[in-house]
Amino acid sequence: MQLRYLKAGPTEHATDLLAVGVTQGTTAATGALAKLDRSLGGAVTRALASGDMRGKLTDEVLLYGGASGPKRVLLLGIGKAEELTPEVVRRMAGRAVRAAEKLRIEAISISLDGLSGVSAELRAQAAAEGAALAAWRFRELKTPSLDEPPVDVRAVDLLGAGNAQALERGALTGAIVARAENLARTLQSRPGNVATPTHLAEEARRIAGGVELEITVFDEERMREEGMHAILAVSQGSEEPARFIILEHRGGKRREPPLVLVGKGLSFDAGGISLKPPEGMENMKFDMSGGAAVIAAMQAVAELGVKANVIGLVPSSENLPSGRALKPGDVIRTLAGKTVEVINTDAEGRLILADALAYGARMKPAAMIDCATLTGAVLVALGHHASAVFGNDDDLVEEIIAAGDASGERCWRLPLWDAYRKQLDSTTADLQNIGGRPGGSITAARFLQEFVGDTKWAHLDIAATAYGEGDVPYLRKGGYGVPTRLLIEWVRGRAK
Ligand code: BES
Ligand code: MN
Ligand code: ZN
């Protein structure tokens, strides 16, 4: 998508569709709305007077323009002025794109006027993100339809008065962030027979080449030499070889400790010998969502030239049943040296992450965050509206919650008390890989904690937030790219 900021008033720019936000309680066309109202012969005033546009978040009114300026004006209710956040702006931009798709318009404009309460830079960033995220589609596996192909919004002009430099900077940041998140969504959407561990590693290599990230990929032989037996154990039932992807961005001082991002890259999770039921199993192609978000966030971090050393780690494998597969009762020796009794082969994410986290901890990071579609239990705990965050450092957890609020990818903390450790006691090994039904997301996180040593660490369980039905205006059914935006926001905050 072509995204740009233009220093123009709402009536000064010729466009097929101009979207304008209207706050709740607006009864008269004042400020930026006044100019529009005049050029539309009082149509804004009439829309307000009719009660059709009361500024509620669901209100939408389409007006038709005259000889100059916008051909159509879409008034979008954006709720109470004092409750305006970047997320409201993101959604407003998403709604503008959806309306344009219905009207079959490819180039639109969005007014950033009247959205004060959010700083100029963040306003432009959020609008750029919402528009570019909304326009994205995954169509590479569909035959193009000849009779009425869906219309894509290809160009968005952000218009507005105010600090032009800040608005321009925000628009650019938003475009980079959204492009990264859309990359994550593309990788997520590719099915298991396309997005294999080898494919993810090749894509990471292609991306690294484009933005000057350093990349190293371990094959299985190298993983064996390193002692990554947990990843190898999960992968051993599959014909597809595992990969361990390492991306590096050197934006900080030479000896500055890195920030490490770890993402679960399970390219398809059938459960292994502890086979999952068939219902909904197709969604287990999304089990590499954490890895996709880490690869995508690394791309954005490089493009934004963030002044920090950042390392992305993605352990990637399949989890399938076969004559060679890992079995319940098997004991494996992890990279950290701890032994794990595998009670359930479907609790494989924590196994591949155990090796990745131990590897990350060796880099003596300033902080390490992992994200993983780790447990079905997190859906029961928090539903689809927040990822669960866990951590061994209160300040770090606070930073992540703040980054989640700012990016619109919210998370909520769950405890990691030692009391939960007992559920992981094993009769044969140092620990077992499941902790029973009570607190299933917590015992999974507690398992991970065993492998980070004293590294400041946080874990995001994204099993219920990484993909969905598309009930946010700027998303569609399928991969959501969560937590790409959160990771970028957190890294940028750390580099300030
Ligand atoms: N990838 C799944 C978790 C998952 C479930 C992600 C639903 C997205 C939607 C993970 O590997 C898994 O199978 N977890 C098990 C753990 C259990 C065996 C302790 C689960 O949650 O059922
Ligand atoms: Mn599983
Ligand atoms: Zn899994």
CATH architecture type of the largest domain: 3-Layer(aba) Sandwich
Strand-residue proportion: 15-25%
Number of beta-strand segments: 20
Measured between the Cα atoms of the first and last residue, the distance is: 29 Å
Mean pLDDT across every amino acid position: 97
Rg calculated over all Cα atoms: 24 Å
The CATH topology annotation of the largest domain reads as Aminopeptidase
Low-pLDDT residue spans: none
What does the overall shape look like? elongated
Alpha-beta classification: alpha/beta
CATH class of the largest domain: Alpha Beta
The number of helices is: 14
**Main sheet summary:** 9 strands, mixed
Give the CATH superfamily of the largest domain: Zn peptidases
* Subunit organisation of the chains: single chain
Number of domains: 2
Question: What is the helix content?
Answer: 25-40%
Report the bound ligands by name, code or SMILES: ligand BES, manganese (II) ion, zinc ion
Structure report:
By secondary structure, the protein is α/β, with parallel strands linked by helices. The chain is elongated. The strands form four sheets. Strands 7, 8, 9, 10, 11, 14, 15, 16 and 18 form a nine-stranded mixed sheet that branches. A six-stranded mixed sheet has the order 1-6-5-2-4-3, sandwiched between helices. A three-stranded mixed sheet has the order 12-13-17, covered by helices on one side. The protein contains 14 helices and 20 strands. It starts with a strand and ends with a helix. The chain has helices at 32-39, 43-50, 86-103, 120-135, 164-189, 197-211, 220-226, 229-235, 289-303, 349-361, 377-382, 394-407, 440-449, 484-495; strands spanning 2-6, 18-22, 60-64, 72-77, 107-111, 155-159, 214-218, 243-250, 259-263, 265-269, 309-319, 331-333, 339-341, 367-372, 387-391, 411-413, 431-432, 457-461, 467-468, 478-479. It folds into two domains: 2-178, Leucine Aminopeptidase, subunit E, domain 1; 190-495, Aminopeptidase. It binds ligand BES, manganese (II) ion (MN) and zinc ion (ZN).
